[in-house]
């Protein structure tokens, strides 16, 4: 069975990682384990933006990929950006082994609202499945309910499901045979 390793990037609560570790296999037919080490995001911090460059973190993650890793998913507690956007919720290597998601802007507290751990977990799962989908060469989907729908604001994440639509699932199944690859469940 394919294995997704969760890599804490910065300080990430163990309970949040555990919930994600249990939820990812419900959406993708994969095993999921938490790595016992964390990646320091500080080398990717850019003071002029007061944010962390996600592509730089992804490059550093790529150096950690081991042969037995099917996918390496970084879970960050910091505010991410790429130069052409003000912020990103995550980034992935299209068709590659690494993806990164930040829960910094997924928290209700970021928007001045009361803490909601259940909503944070849902949003983090949806973003994780979305970025893992990019590692499977999936592009953004026009179906707003699909996990692969584009989200430029947290409200759009709330509309999405944590599963792939039939079309996206078919694309993955046609590229990756179930016998040696990933089998996605809707």
What does the overall shape look like? globular
Order of helices and strands: EHEEEEHEEEEHHHE
Instruction: Output the CATH class name.
Output: Alpha Beta
| Beta strand % | 15-25%
Percent helix among the residues? 25-40%
Indicate the low-confidence ranges by residue numbers: 177-186
What is the residue-averaged pLDDT? 90
The N- and C-terminal alpha carbons lie at a distance of 18 Å
The number of E-state strands comes to 10
Number of domains: 1
What assembly state would you assign to the polypeptide chains in this entry? Answer: single chain
Structural class: alpha/beta
Instruction: Tell me the CATH architecture.
Output: 3-Layer(aba) Sandwich
Major pleated sheet = 5 strands, mixed
CATH fold-level topology:
Collagenase (Catalytic Domain)
Strand order of the largest sheet: 3-1-6-9-8
The CATH superfamily title: Collagenase (Catalytic Domain)
């Amino acid at each position: 069975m394919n294995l997704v390793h969760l890599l804490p990037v910065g300080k990430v609560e163990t309970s949040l990682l555990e919930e994600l570790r249990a939820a990812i296999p419900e959406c993708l037919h994969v095993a999921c384990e938490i790595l016992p080490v964390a990646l320091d995001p500080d080398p990717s911090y850019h003071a002029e933006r007061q944010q962390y460059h996600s592509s730089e973190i992804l490059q550093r993650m790529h150096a950690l990929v081991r042969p037995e890793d099917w996918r390496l998913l970084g879970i960050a507690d910091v505010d991410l950006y790429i130069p052409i956007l003000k912020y990103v919720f995550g980034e992935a290597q299209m068709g590659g082994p690494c993806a990164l998601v930040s829960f910094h802007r997924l928290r209700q507290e970021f928007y001045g609202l009361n803490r909601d751990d259940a909503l944070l977990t849902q949003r983090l799962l949806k973003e994780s499945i979305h970025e893992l989908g990019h590692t499977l060469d999936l592009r953004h989907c026009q179906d707003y309910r699909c996990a692969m729908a584009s989200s430029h604001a947290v409200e759009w994440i709330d509309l999405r499901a944590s599963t792939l639509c039939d079309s996206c699932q078919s694309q993955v199944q046609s590229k990756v045979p179930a016998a040696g690859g990933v089998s996605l469940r809707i």
